[in-house]
Protein 1
Amino acid sequence: MTTNPDADAACFWNSPMTRAWATEHARVDALFAGVLERALEAAAPRLGERVIDIGCGSGTSVLALAERVGAEGQVLGLDLARESIAVAQRRLTAAGHRQARAEVGDAASYPLPAGGFDLLFSRFGVMFFPDPVAAFRHLHAALRPGGRLCATAFQAPTANPWTSAPAAALRPLLPPQPPAQSDAPGQFGWARAGRPAEILEGAGFREVRVTPQELGFRLGPDAATAARTAMTFGAVARALFEADAATRATAQMALETFFAGHQGPDGVVMPAAIWIVTAQA
Ligand SMILES: C[S@@+](CC[C@H](N)C(=O)[O-])C[C@H]1O[C@@H](n2cnc3c(N)ncnc32)[C@H](O)[C@@H]1O
């Protein structure tokens, strides 16, 4: 690890531990499809608007935004992960969306024209900045007066059994994990209800609204697929990353048993809780 938190973040998001966000993006998109739908509804992008997609990953939301703003609009997807951006660029080219581009860059410091955008959008890309107020001050400066933000973030782990419950089921098999720190950058960095407003108001935004939404995340059609999904992204994947083959095989079996208890007529669907955060420039 370096002493520069930004460099650490870039290393982390370009490491094998997070590569599945690029290589398995179809699985992520299936899991988070309902989130994107609700976020787009709240953001209400209009024809001709100019949008930044913060932490755009492999570009699913960039594609959706490009369709909504149309040929006269503009979408800039930013992400630290080179492989995710390469996937996003291929998908944009295939879709023929000349109004959208995806660039490797740190959204906290990427050069942006002052007042050049109408909307900051993100699906789960806002909770990772080491200095979030500074990052959002930079992004705020890129919004025109009257511009807006719409981003999704996770509520607390206890409200998200889709990820916390399988991690808890594996706890006896794994070395102790460091306790999660409230407000620390990461998957649950915006989980405390007051946290988004602290950051965004500190960065110059007004009228911050944090709206709770509950969803069901479908981890797969059956317990074996759900186990593989859990082992690919999030808390379980991180906890198992350095595990040996035998531990991984035991974990897969334990997860299959766990998810079998959550199998229903629509597959393995588990509760998830997010915030939809909106704010004005
Ligand atoms: C949880 S993933 C979400 C990806 C995508 N928005 C989606 O919903 O599939 C978080 C993304 O934020 C990106 N990210 C983290 N810190 C970033 C930063 N400072 N600037 C740009 N992207 C960042 C990561 O590389 C990762 O792709």
Note: Residues 5-280 form a domain with the Rossmann fold fold (CATH 3.40.50.150).
Protein 2
Amino acid sequence: MFNLFKLIANEFRALVFPGTCLKCRTLLTGKGESSLSSCYCTGCLGNELPHYIPPFCPCCGKVFTSRTGESHLCEDCLRRPPVVSRVRAAFEYKGVVREGIGQFKYNSRLSLARPFESCLFHAFGIYLAGKKIDLIVPIPLYFKKARQRGFNQSYLLVRNFVSLYREKYGIPPDWTIDAKGLVRVKQTSTQTGLDIVERRKNLKQAFKWKGRESLEGKSVLLVDDVYTTGATCDAAAGALTDAGADRVDALVLARA
Ligand SMILES: [Zn+2]
Ligand SMILES: [Zn+2]
């Protein structure tokens, strides 16, 4: 319930004080609502938004610290390939993006939803638009958490994907968005502070495909805000492949 007040307060603030930087509160020189510069001033955005660029692992999407050289499979994927076949992102999880995701998710700064969504769609266009995708599935929250937060951040990141696609490519996409079929059936304690083994254990059987549509032979694209160890995406992907999905990829706003 308390979150509802925060949501209303933020909407009210956005109405009364449109165009102030979320970080330093300086006035912004009004730009389109779908750009990050509608939420942060140039100073706070810096010249260095942590854009997600190669070289990275083609499988788990991990960015290599050495900015030279080719993309290649990372050690983790060679040793234990994840269930998700391909992870791609819009940003690396750092700087103003990391802070913004925190504001968006835990502080209900919903003015960030559209800008983040268009950044995610941009990454989709670069890395995934030409690939076989039948279904886009945002990672769900457990119902109690969804009720408490008042929104599912992953869904807000793909809500307008169909219209963004039509706008960009001039045709309707051949995928659909399904935000109801995948269900989080188990409340999991917070993942923060847990290592990968503990996270996996924590998330075992946390998701279930309850959609009416059969996933037999389908390619599914999972969407989440942040990818850290990949335990959440992998648990969700496991539920989708159990339900017959052929292949599961993931697109996230930020890759840690
Ligand atoms: Zn600022
Ligand atoms: Zn990897």
Note: The first strand starts at residue 86 and ends at 92.
